[in-house]
Design brief:
Blueprint lengths: L5 H4 L10 H4 L12 H9 L13 E3 L2 E3 L7 H9 L3 H11 L3 H7 L3 H4 L12 H14 L15 E5 L3 H12 L3 E5 L8 H5 L7 H14 L3 E3 L10 H7 L2 E4 L5 E2 L12 E3 H14 L13 E5 L3 H12 L4 E5 L26 H10 L4 E2 L2 E8 L5 E13 L5 E5 L5 E4 L2 E4 L3 E3 L3 H6 L23 E3 L2 H4 L4 H20 L6
Parallel strand pairs: 3-4, 3-6, 4-5, 6-18, 8-16, 9-10, 9-16, 10-11
Antiparallel strand pairs: 1-2, 7-17, 12-13, 13-14, 13-15
Helix pairs in contact: 3-4, 4-5, 4-8, 5-8, 6-8, 9-18, 13-14, 14-15
Amino acid sequence: MGKPTGFMEFLREVATEVSPSDRIHNWDEFHLHMPEEKLRTQGARCMDCGIPFCHTGTLISGMASGCPINNLIPEWNDLVYRGLWKEALERLHKTNNFPEFTGRVCPAPCEGSCVLGLNNPPVTIKNIECSIVDKGWEEGWITANPPAKRTGKKVAIVGSGPAGLAAAAQLNTAGHWVTVFERADRPGGLLMYGIPNMKLEKEAVVMRRLNILQAEGVEFVCDTEVGKDITSEQLLKDFDAVILCTGATKPRDLPIEGRELKGIHFAMEFLTANTQAVLNQVPGDDFISAAGKDVVIIGGGDTGTDCVGTSIRHSCNSVTQLEIMPQPPNERAANNPWPEWPKVYKMDYGQEEAAAIFGADPRTYTTTATKFEGDENGHVKAVHTVQVEWTKDENGRFIPKQVPGTEQVLPTQLVLLAMGFLGPEQPLLDALGIERDARSNVKAEHEKYTTSLPGVFAAGDCRRGQSLVVWAFNEGRGAARECDRYLMGSTDLP
């Protein structure tokens, strides 16, 4: 390393942000760039550790420890410290096709397993990653690079989310003709419509990379649903191989009394329609407004947070987020040791904004909804809640048990269900007759990605279940490698 003692000399610093009270008036990204000299100092904090856990990508207790795409983090930290930005970008692109996406939306399991994090604040890996690629765009280093030769093989990718894009980029590099089918009006999948614009700008960041892919030869066919607009039989006939990257888009419902009332929506209905309104500069027919409403969000994860931030930008009257799990501790618990993902309390951007506007974190922990109450017009007007305690059943599994006397009634005119996803939608899989696992996901082994149909592969959330964007990149790249091997007999793809 260029600065072996950097971790002892420099404190962790993160990029500043537009204040919550200012950024809620628009849909712009709110993270500000850190000066280059400070970024170099942060790169110097990388320890030159003997075993860099940051890029292992190991699963521990069911969660990622280290980077799932094995980013060469110590190498590009050192290059940034030495001011070799172009070389840092080259190392970053070795393992990551889209670092501008992970640098913005990844929860950074790399930082959770940073060796420095054993007894000090970890290296600011995520911010350095984003800064490297943003500088690459600013300097004009990222340009279209079509393959010199084509194999003549044609590959169809169903779904243009993170896994589909990673697979498309890799297969196109190998010289295959790649066509990506997307049922929405724009490509990008989760990156386009599942993540709000203030976290990941669509025109300035997402479309910028998609335009590069198109210039390199990847074809995007939007407004086309495989199984409806084009039959699965036709797809198999027209292409030499198919990769399914349809995501896990079947939302978890809450079948309690009053669920049929108007004003109760799945979170993705709310978020997708909002992003379309931002991009089209006019609300569509399916736009859902939180303006002037008391909003109750059921679910405490990232999607719930996005609903909080979006509702505040609509000028909601109030926002409450119900979380059935207990509030995490402020520091690692004894049963959550390094290098596991740190399960600690933090406020994400949405909660910070809610606290700035309404005075407190909007999350109510160990609480669940028991009934929706409607008015005379069949519209939701209240959510009945109760606190729960987690106890073990006869099989030793933790289950939530309602606590008598903790019932409450929350007034609301808009309820958003953000409780995660159950798996992929099934009609296309039924039409293909493809084998599935016990959780309804496409049955395909990790690192092989082959399904029960020859020449058909699966990657991302439709195979592994709801997961991180960075895991989707891991699987998309892996499926591309195995697809290339199937088509050509061998492969040079990583």
